[in-house]
């Protein structure tokens, strides 16, 4: 069985745990996401003790080949988010 949680579920759990309105729960959750996003936009990293670290990785641009046509094409450089779980989180999952 697969358990997953989406933003709506997170909001409901937050409302229940802290006895706040739906709007307030949404504001707090959005605030946390915005703070993480702002730091990552600046190529920073976010360390959440006991949970993990979010950081930005860079992939260089390169020349690739379109598998359908065989044509060479330019693949632009990209930035991606990397997450590395902390030891306490890993230990909890064992």
Automatic annotation (TrEMBL):
Alphabetized SMART domains for the sequence: BHL (SM00411)
A Gene Ontology molecular function term of the record: DNA binding
InterPro entries registered for this protein in UniProt: Hist_DNA-bd, Histone-like_DNA-bd_CS, IHF-like_DNA-bd_dom_sf
Ribonucleoprotein is among the record's keywords: no
SUPFAM superfamilies linked to this entry: IHF-like DNA-binding proteins
Keywords, alphabetical: DNA condensation, DNA-binding
Pfam family, one: Bac_DNA_binding
Family statement: Belongs to the bacterial histone-like protein family.
UniProt protein name: HU family DNA-binding protein
Organism: Faecalicoccus acidiformans
